Amino acid sequence: CLILSFFSRGKLGRYPPWPGKIVNPPKDLKKPRGKKCFFVKFFGTEDHAWIKVEQLKPYHPHKEEMIKINKGKRFQQAVDAVEEFLRKAKGRDQASSHNSNEEKNRHNSNEERGKQSAGEEKRKANLPEGKLKKGTGEGKKRVSSVSSERGSKSPLKRAQDQSPRKRGRPPKDEKDLTIPESSTVKRVMTGTVAGFKWPPSVSEPVKDSDPHFHHFLLSQTEKPAVCYQAITKKLKVCEEETGSTSIQAADSTAVNGSITPTDKKIGFLGLGLMGSGIVSNLLKMGHTVTVWNRTAEKCDLFIQEGARLGRTPAEVVSTCDITFACVSDPKAAKDLVLGPSGVLQGIRPGKCYVDMSTVDADTVTELAQVIVSRGGRFLEAPVSGNQQLSNDGMLVILAAGDRGLYEDCSSCFQAMGKTSFFLGEVGNAAKMMLIVNMVQGSFMATIAEGLTLAQVTGQSQQTLLDILNQGQLASIFLDQKCQNILQGNFKPDFYLKYIQKDLRLAIALGDSVNHPTPMAAAANEVYKRAKALDQSDNDMSAVYRAYIH
What we know:
single chain; alpha/beta; Rossmann fold; N-(1-d-carboxylethyl)-l-norvaline Dehydrogenase, domain 2; eleven-stranded mixed beta sheet; about 50% helix; globular; Cytokine-like nuclear factor N-PAC; 6PGD_dom2; 6-PGluconate_DH-like_C_sf; DNA binding; HIBADH-like_NADP-bd
């Protein structure tokens, strides 16, 4: 029975479909509390997850529909893997059926021989003694001949050896279908789930599973590289050689809901592309959240989901224990804190402020000083990711500042991200975030440059993407951005104007320490041209248009 799951995340996001196979979970892995679910390994990836029963639908009736919706090459490869698995399974079933028929024929033959033997014994009993000895000798000779033809095993033993295997035990040739364990999960699980080992028969079907679900399903996990998705949301804290600390999660907590939310009141300021997904996940994981946004209408959806409404930033800070903010740039970050009815007016001793905006180190240092001067606690925590990762609770959080506040934010960071890093003193996270986005923005410009060069030299852009996806550069980012360009779909997942802002700030960071950034400077000029072509509010992949105009 093939299955398709539709795992959606409310009104703010949805995982794409993905084919997988129900298997036995590792013995040391606890099943999530709540509704019935199955442990799944996904075809074409190294990922795995607990999937709830109500998120599953029959696979065959929906297969064509899902293929039309998801045009990605990796998804098609995963579907091909399912079909190959089915062909092998069908072959094994036919072989098993053939063996079963042969066994039935042998059994009938044995019964016939048994009847003949019984008749022979009855005949012997009626013979005179002399003839009986002669007959017995002939009988022994005949039985010996039959025995030598069949080998040394008894009929019962042979029947056991040749009978179909018990349910739940795949034949030996199925071992090549086992999906390998993710190296990411291996690394993560050495902490909290020490001693974690896959059982030898990890590809076995779940013995006690609902008969409607059998081996296959389509799960709504993200594509391979993102995923690092799903086992448990247990965290580990590990000290790295650099002195930074990271909190790492094995999956998106929104998948299994295993977070224990903090009892502190949470405030959130700014409901843009990133902030919307973050707040949604905080609410889903049971946090008490008060929201504010410059455009008040954006708050309505979250009020419906259980959030409270704050009239001003100052009011949110004064009524909450920890207030997060995520706005567009340094000016917006300063205005939010220092402006009329701003954050600073609500700060008093013990109040906590976490700025998740991507800004420069000087800006975040200035904000930290004014917050702390009022007795408040400050943490910077910019996030690496995009709208989809924000919706999926799979962001990477880079934090610096008050270490105690970082730990107090643990359940919030678990809800919104897959990993968080503590990088030390205020300013370090801002610098690291700008470097990360500098690399990402430069890479995006190079992708656009390569696609346009392929076009003007008469090469297929799709073939170029296929080649890149088979090489060392293969990634979800590469595939998604190239698909945007090929389809002419530049709906924003990460605004072009913001990646250009980050490139500008990264170049300034290099200038401040007299470090050359010629690649970033070149990429920045291309984004500036794209902005001049009115691409600011499109996705960063719209930088492609700077090359074709």
